[in-house]
Amino acid sequence: MVLAASTFAAHAIEGELSGKFIINTNGDSVHFSQGLLQYHEMTSKWSFAAHQFKADNDALAYFGWGTSGWNSGANEYQPTSTSADPADYFVGGNENNNLTGDYAYADWGIYNPIKNGGNFAGLWRVLTHEEWVYIIESRPNAGKLFGFATIDNLYKGVILLPDEWVLPSGVTFKPGTDCYMEYETGNGWRNLNLDMQTNYNDNKYTLAQWEIMEEAGAVFFPAMGYLTGGEIRYPNDYGYYASSSARNGYTEYAMEFDNKSLLASDGAARRGNGVSVRLVTNEGAGQGIENAQSHKAAKKILRDGQVLILMDGKQLNILGAEVK
Q1: Is residue 322 part of a domain?
Q2: Between the CA of residue 59 and those of 5, 141, 247, what are the distances in Å?
Q3: Who is most buried in 17, 83, 123, 128, counting CB within 10 A?
Q4: DSSP string covering 32-54
């Protein structure tokens, strides 16, 4: 269901999209950011891309794992880090540590204000491996809520639809399972019919048509490839989107796709490769920031791995609820 503008905007954070995605069996939900995370080296500022389907020309949009700029104990932690050695990105010096708990500040959205995303640290985060798996593989009707697409005859990638999706008039949508995609337990969605290749032309949208889809809550993940050795490899062919979860010594769990697969359970990326980051904000986080911004003395703190807002002597989570 498309949220009415007045309903969605009541406590929406700048930069969040309208589509609501449930991320676990408890019913917790998030909104994706308006575009890719970007770093502006000249100003040391972070922003979201202006459009979902591409990065802005003047910004860095590929990041090694945990490179928020916070010194996590890893050898490499700056957003401009270029080392290709996965061991350089072990937060806390341990390959098993995630970007959560004591190392939550290694998450780009937890540590940094996003200038067109509320401009307040702690509002955004990356999904965990388990949350990616739930959205792509486990939620009800998951096979009907993703598809491959090309926008403006140029930008290729994957579309994820929110749980309460209603197709708006004036556009069409062909889900992956209508295009020979089959689910492999413990792996993800693959095209197992080699004679009928799923590809990015399954759904084709003009810019005007995509605007209709976006307003209805659709989220587009462009196939950005990855950055290694100063070279962007496989742009418009492969997509790798970071999670906060370590996989093994060489890799992080990631949302991974090409024109014939979409993987979450077994999706991965090398920690030393620069990959795409798409942040989310928890449903209701806008209320917390409104409360905090109404008090000049409000500031953020980290307690037991959780980002809290210290305001008027009280510790609040980003939803605005007091934490004892």
Answers
A1: no
A2: 30, 36, 28
A3: 123
A4: EBSS-EEEETTTTEEEE-SBTTB
User: In the chain, which residue ranges form alpha helices assigned H by DSSP?
Assistant: 5-9, 108-111, 129-133, 207-215, 285-293
> Do 33 and 48 contact (CB within 8 A), yes or no?
yes
What mean pLDDT is reported for the chain? 89
Helix, strand, or coil (residue 24): coil
Mean of pLDDT values over 129-145: 97
Number of domains in the chain: 2
The span from the CA of 12 to the CA of 33, in Å, is 11
Angle at 102 between CA 98 and CA 104, to 5 degrees: 60
Contacts of 212 (CB under 8 A, 6+ apart): 168, 170, 171
Which amino acid appears at position 309 of this protein? I
pTM, two decimals, is 0.87
* In a domain? residue 257: yes
Higher pLDDT, 14 or 3: 14
Residues 65 and 161 in one domain: yes
For the stretch 156-215, pLDDT in tens is: 999 999 999 999 999 999 999 998 899 988 889 998 776 666 689 999 999 999 999 999
